[in-house]
Amino acid sequence: MAPLRQSCDEIILSSKRCIPFKFRDTEQNGGDTSKKIVEVLMINSTSGPGLLFPKGGWENDETVKEAAVREAIEEAGVRGDLVHFLGYYLFKSKTLQDEYSPEGLCRAAMFALFVKEELDCWPEQNRRKRSWLTIPEAIECCRHQWMREALEEGFLKWHEGGMVSTINNDED
């Protein structure tokens, strides 16, 4: 991953993540989209208990948005459209601690990804299990506190505000 910013002896590495979501119909909603249940997709961690959102760095030839979409395909086997930037969330990564970043401090750019297709086959399907959860269920299952914050402070506030699309997927 490429450094985003350097100050004194601290380097913050960047990670791209998305919160994939879809709407589940209920029998009571009668087709009213405002009453559909929102579910978010989480995947198992390959290094311990708990659930995560698809994540990763980005390649030199791709944008931040392209990287988030690619990681959703590779790790969770879903395709869709990024519809909202949820914000930046700081976290520490033990696997990214090194001489340049002894704290392993990372900054995750979080996006909401509206899922249009669930793939039957995807690159990490033998290592990852998908779980569709309501937002309260997902908050309980998050492996890391900063992911709960992204759900509560980013996704949930955006959802309660009407889920207005703020990203034009035709531009980079």
Automatic annotation (TrEMBL):
Keywords: Hydrolase, Magnesium, Metal-binding. The keyword Lipid biosynthesis does not apply. Pfam families: NUDIX. Residues 3-155 form the Nudix hydrolase domain. The keyword Acyltransferase does not apply. SUPFAM superfamilies: Nudix (SSF55811). GO terms for molecular function: metal ion binding; pyrophosphatase activity. InterPro entries: DDP-like_NUDIX, NUDIX_hydrolase-like_dom_sf, NUDIX_hydrolase_CS, NUDIX_hydrolase_dom. It comes from the Eukaryota. Its cofactor is Mg(2+). Belongs to the Nudix hydrolase family. This is Nudix hydrolase 16, mitochondrial isoform X2. It comes from Nicotiana tabacum. The lineage of its organism: Eukaryota, Viridiplantae, Streptophyta, Embryophyta, Tracheophyta.
